[in-house]
Amino acid sequence: MNFLLSDDQQEIQEAVRRYLAKTCQSVDLHRIFDSSSGHDIALWKGLADIGVTGLALPEEAGGMGLELIDLALVAEILGAAATPGPFLGHSLAGLALAWSSNKTLARRWLPGLASGEVIGTVAFAEGASLWWPEEWQLPSAAPVLVGTKTRVPFAAAADLIVVGTSGGQLYLVERDAPGLEISEEDSVDRTRRLGRIQFHKTPASLLTAAPDVAERLCNAARVLLAADAFGGANCCLERTVDYAKTREQFGRPIGAFQGLKHQLADLAVAIEPARGLYWYAAHAFDRIPEQASPAAALAKAHLTDCYIQVSRGSVEAHGGIGYTWDCDIQIYVKRAMFDYAFLGGAPKHRARYADLAGW
Questions:
Q1: Taking a C-beta distance cutoff of 8 angstroms, is the pair 329, 180 a contact?
Q2: In what residue span(s) does the Acyl-CoA dehydrogenase/oxidase N-terminal domain sit (predicted)?
Q3: Under 8 Å between Cβ of 92 and 100
Q4: Secondary structure of the chain as H, E, C letters
Q5: With contact defined as beta carbons under 8 Å apart, do 18 and 50 qualify?
Q6: Largest CB tally within 10 Å, which of 17, 45, 155, 228?
Q7: 283 alpha-carbon distance from chain centroid
Q8: What is the mean pLDDT of each run of 10 residues along the chain (359 residues)?
Q9: Domains plus CATH for the chain?
Q10: What is the C-alpha R_g of the chain?
Q11: Which residues have CB under 8 Å from 173's CB, separation 6+?
């Protein structure tokens, strides 16, 4: 059995890495982080030009027709660079359209989503803790929706919104639909802005009434969040090791002190084995459907937990400067908090894994 990435997968990762090395440097990151919208059109267009926006969408719609594992590998690189933008919500909206039973809507919108000219997002959350299809309470009252969704990624930038409703149904709402009210919500992670959407008898089109499609979409989200968390945690460690080699105290690099060596070693031990969790979760999603849900839950729980641990440990290793606004590490801490909280925290996902395992 081959556990290595293919040449094509490595080339995709390297293409995204090269692009971000030029366009998402520290100065760019802070500029977008501090902006009013958090969405850089030029950065997004560049990602679209190298195929990121249509990676897992059908070839007949202008996508590349690849699998979730390929999308997750890109999410890892985006996470490593703390890339701002609507990648998460857009990718999920595209998958929802691709899996939709409404082929008319799919034909209409998938080409724009694949090219990145149309931005999509997903509206799952209700209140503080209702994230999953079995928890959705927004009434399924086609052809209009009435109610509220919270924590919608880049709601203000989205042209299309995939909305989860009671019974695990998915609806599509267009940005210019009447009765749609979007407001900004506070987000600790300013690289991924959140919005609140209120539907006042807003026209909506049914994408699918099959709850298993909504559940599959949530599993895809869990895998992408886990991949982002791995990329971010790994980058935190690399940056902290580099800092420990150059920052001097008492006439020697701080990395020479045994206490810090042990701390960084503990972080490395926490990170590297976790890579296999998201790889397997993505593989199960693509090839082993009966394992997709437990694998996604476990990957999301462990990797986002790990990201919190590593990012906080990185701040501590940096010392006082790690707490400042100018230090990039604080951005990763906030992304770790987003990855952990979005779709529910680690305890909720561990409980889900236990339920699925029959414990």
A1: no
A2: 6-117
A3: no
A4: CCCCCCHHHHHHHHHHHHHHHHHCCHHHHHHHHCCCCCCCHHHHHHHHHCCHHHCCCCHHHCCCCCCHHHHHHHHHHHHHCCCCCCHHHHHHHHHHHHCCCCHHHHHHHHHHHHHCCCCEEEECCECCCECCHHHCCCCCCCCEEEEEEEEEECHHHCCEEEEEEHHHEEEEEECCCCCEEEEEECCCCCCCCEEEEEEEEEECEEEECCHHHHHHHHHHHHHHHHHHHHHHHHHHHHHHHHHHHHCEECCEEHHHCHHHHHHHHHHHHHHHHHHHHHHHHHHHHHHCHHHHHHHHHHHHHHHHHHHHHHHHHHHHHHHHHHHCCCCCHHHHHHHHHHHHHCCCCHHHHHHHHHHHHCC
A5: no
A6: 228
A7: 17
A8: 83 97 94 91 97 97 97 98 98 98 95 98 92 94 91 97 97 97 94 97 95 96 99 94 73 65 84 92 97 98 97 86 85 97 97 93
A9: 7-87 (1.10.540.10), 120-209 (2.40.110.10), 212-357 (1.20.140.10)
A10: 20
A11: 145, 160, 161, 163, 180, 199, 202, 203, 204, 205
| pTM score of the predicted model | 0.95
- Only one residue has tokens 């999301």, namely 300
Nearest Cα neighbor of 195 from 125, 107, 280 is: 125
Q: Compute the residue count for the chain.
A: 359
Q: Which tokens in the block code for residue 346?
A: 């680690």
Q: Which amino acid is at 318?
A: H
- How far from 281 is each of 56, 72, 223, 272, 284, CA to CA, in Å? 16, 10, 6, 16, 5
